[in-house]
Amino acid sequence: MNSRILSLVGAIFLFWCLASAQDSTPLGAHKFGIEGDHFVLDGKPFQIISGEMHYARIPREYWRDRLKKARAMGLNTISTYVFWNAHEPKPGVYNFTGLLDVGAFIRMAQEEGLYVILRPGPYSCAEWDLGGFPAWLFADPNIVLRSTDEKFMGPAERWLKRLGQELAPLQLARGGPILAVQVENEYGSFGSDKAYMTRIYDALQNAGFTDSLLFTADGGDELAAGTLPDVHAAVNFGPGEAKKEIPKLQKFRPGRPVLNAEYWDGWFDHWGERHHTTDANQQAQEIDWMLSQGYSVNLYMFHGGTSFGFMSGANWDNKNYEPDVTSYDYDSPVSESGALTKKFYAFREVVAKHRPGVAFPDPPAPLPVIEIPAFTLDRMAPVWNFDFSKASTVDQPRNMETFGQSYGYILYRTTLKTAAEGDLVLPALRSYARVYLNWKLVGVADRRKKQDRIKLQANANDEIDILVEGTGRINFSGELRNERQGINGPVTLAGHELTGWQVYPLPMDDLSNLDFSGMEPSKETVGPAFYQGHFNLQDVGDTFLDTRGWGKGAVWINGHPVGRFWNVGPQQTLYVPAPWLKRGTNEIAIFTLGGKSPRLRGLREPVLEELGSE
After folding, report:
1. Is the pLDDT score of 9 beyond 60?
2. Is residue 336 flagged as an active site residue?
């Protein structure tokens, strides 16, 4: 009897193994695909109603809050880029921890009942420095980004392979929430090299992204250049363009499901230009129309967040350099700090019409917001006091990437051999420079204004310092291939080349070695310097650091890189999330090129619309 039972159990087990071999889909997994002109999930028609948010732009402690708000607005999917440069800060050195634990973010989305569209690049755009490419790629002077150049493709394929180890197991067919994976990003706006796009497609397949829908996304007029024959195509556009752009996709790929992979429900800001807001009612009506047609939509952005640290990028429009502010508020349904805007409620009402019978959860309670009374930064470390014996000596200035530096500032110093008067010319300046003669400011060169020279009169043995900020690498267009930061070429004065330079990188990725001992802030402007101070809190909450009066620079609080500030506006405050603060003593450090105020305060509301002057 026992042997018969054992035989029966064995037969059942063998049958289960054979069945599993024929269908490798694990228990609890789902199937997403295409049937005719619509998407299907487990064999039933499925309409993607998605919103974009980027985990690297949101404090990890707030991920769940933002995801719950996505559910509360009625979304069934969220979309996110993966920024290569954040995860591989140095060649072969990977970071998937803390704010960059993308796997945890995607699993959390699944816990909150959301599917995921993954956009792994390797190119992202997204107003992010160099479109997500690591700056260390530029250590090779001959590399060609976004091409089949092996100097680029080798690192890119290795990166995607490593990313696959983290995320391929989270595809829908393997029990995770990832239902679609984008191949590259808007390549049709950049080029038309099918061999390159095929290499990226193959790299994603080799990385294990074989159990989700792969797709490309481009503007309607760029579809032919940016797509691959057997890969699903999606279209991107802004408000007022749906009835014009969607027919272009339908003509290009007739009878296929329509996915608007980016519906631009807001816009981003540039330093020195006005803050952008857009029409919530018009967008709600257009989203309503698209959903009523059965089309799938991804709102770019649902929640923009913040380009913390030095990660904000720049645009290149008609040969004009336009660096982006730190805030990525984007005038989106959920503000930079997580507040619900009028768009949230307008879009929620629209989505509810198209998901009848689905009860949307209430959004989470508003997060606490605090003021921080004005406090003084009481210690200072001028750049001129640094130990320049560690500087590199070169005959001609080179870009920061050749010194192993990706972000921050870089100082070039030389001593004149003879007196000279004329133009000091800085070729290929990337992207903002202040020039000092014997430690005194004598001029500014701003790439935004196409400035690359200043008038200078100097004597023999005078010391010239050129402090350059990488203000944000271009993240869109072919110009990104030239985005090496610093000065990369000969500097001339009155037509004669200056040689014998000391180069001192200031990457600002570790402030622990700064010496503030005995240095109190001066009432006089001392030039570029770090300032340090402390403030005490009884309770924590989100706040907005008022940087007016500090000029141009960057802020760190309790070791967290908050972001860049610049008095030209329109952004005049920096968002500081509550999880980066603590009860009791908090430490703040500021780098400024020459602010006039040693005091700071935290506001309850952001200031994103106030233009200033240099």
Report:
1. no
2. no
Q: Which listed residue (157, 262, 322, 469) is catalytic?
A: 262
- Asked if 490 contacts 396 with a C-beta cutoff of 8 angstroms, the reply is yes
Residues of each domain in the chain carrying CATH 2.60.120.260: 372-377+510-603, 396-499
435 with 442: CB under 8 angstroms? Answer: yes
* DSSP structure string for 492-559: EETTEEE--EEEEEE--S--TT---TT-PPPSS--SSEEEEEEEEESS--BEEEE-TTS-EEEEEETT
Burial track 518-542 (b if 16+ CB lie within 10 A, e otherwise): ebebeeeebbbbbbbbebebeebbb
Q: Is 173 helix (H, G, I), strand (E, B) or coil?
A: helix
- Assigned token pair, 334: 């959920």
pLDDT value at residue 523: 55
The whole-chain average pLDDT of the chain stands at 94
What b-and-e string marks burial along 37-61, b requiring 16 or more CB atoms within 10 Å of the CB?
ebbebeeeebbbbbbbbbbbbbbbe
Q: What is the pLDDT of residue 519?
A: 64
Q: Are 528 and 543 in contact (CB under 8 A)?
A: no
Q: Which of 9-13, 34-38, 288-292, 359-363 has the lowest mean pLDDT?
A: 9-13
Q: 52, 166, 184, 186: which is the annotated catalytic residue?
A: 186
DSSP code per residue over 408-468 = SEEEEEEE-SS-EEEEEE-TT-BSEEEEEETTEEEEEEEGGGT--EEEEEE-TT-EEEEEE
Q: In whole angstroms, give the CA distance from residue 147 to residue 195.
A: 9
Every domain range in the chain assigned CATH 3.20.20.80: 43-354
In CATH, the architecture of 396-499 is Sandwich (2.60)
Report the alpha-carbon distance of residue 463 to residue 248 in Å, rounded: 60
* Three-class DSSP category at 51: strand
On the question of pLDDT at 18 being above 50, the answer is: no
Topology classification of domain 43-354: TIM Barrel (3.20.20)
The yes/no answer on whether domain 372-377+510-603 falls in CATH 2.60.120.260 is yes
Q: Could you confirm whether 262 is annotated as catalytic?
A: yes
Spatial CB neighbours of 318, under 8 Å, sequence gap ≥ 6: none
Question: What pTM was estimated for this model as a whole?
Answer: 0.94
